[in-house]
Design brief:
single chain, alpha+beta, 407 residues
Amino acid sequence: MTPTHARAVIVGSGIVGASIAYHLARLGWRDLVVLEQGELVGGTTSHAPGLVGQLRSSPALTRMLMYSAALYRTLAVDGVPGFLGEGSLRLASSPARWAQLRGQAEFARGVGLEAHLLTAEEAGRLCPLLSLAGVEGALYLPGDGSAVAPVLARALIHEARTLGVTFSSHARVEAIEVAGGRVRAVRTGAGRVETDTLVAAAGIWSPPLGRLAGVALPLVPMQHQYVVTAPLPELAGRTVPNLRDPDRLIYTRQREQGLIVGGYERDPRPYDGEAIPDGADPTVRPFDPARFEPLHRAAVGRLPALAGAAEVRQVNGLEAFTPDGEFLLGPAPKVNGFWSACGFCAHGVAGAGGVGRALAEWVAHGDPGEDLSPMALGRFAGRVPDRDAVREGACRVYGTYYDIAPA
């Protein structure tokens, strides 16, 4: 039964919402309620590809992701781990990319992240499936890995429950009561919960949730496709690192004896529906083989073993992207007590551990522990882009996801 009062209400039981609940509870906030419109651990968490890379463009975000990886190594459900520490390889298939990787290696070491520059031949020894044609070198990050996101979310939910957090499924938010410029209560189909702190961690559903409180959350659901192959003979008895070949716009990660293969095409497709569709898993849309074909062709060029590999699963999942490629974190500028944790631009699983810790510290103590101003929701105060601008920006971020940023 959903309580009628809570110190804080978190909307969304995916890996981010579960992490926020866990970290707030560890700070002593026991009177917490997590609301989920369907079954627990749905949405993007249920189908995320699960690459956990730690190296990003800013020290704050890199440290956030390093914390995530460290936390994930401690989490399991019934003895099944939620994190696989295979490490990762970033290939340079051009001289410009090799120059970028050399700079990234220096940056990584500066923030305490282990990183090694490898020759093409050394990369090939770590991943024998690779064709090394055109490879200038690689960056190896041994602390990276991949996540089984539902396992991590369920583990965080279990830990939060042991600390007294209530999780309510099938409790869709119908209204948010705001008075005197402050959140006062949340009304759901399961009842009304009085609270003065609400965290929107609802993924692609966060914008309509924000509108209930008069808060604009500028993000767009983008369609992101990947496939899962049948077992490959080349992977029998072997574990290979996650692979990114950004010049080819592709990534792979091992899943048992097969590979997950995806990427970021130049002509991305936002989900343009007025409302998110109903269904057993509304964040999964019909797969478009023609749109995926260029990525598949690029992947085969780098990993020839994929040429005849059967596909056991095809996924077209919705991922929340923002117009500037940064997260939407922190307090709403004009509605006290409304907080956001969404818009992760395909970093939601990798970032969830660190996001949960930072947002919990921010809510409880007024300081996230890092300078998160580039990710803060407040950066849009007074100038929230309109729907078309958000859509155009999100498409630009997605379509240039692997591009080398201008100097």
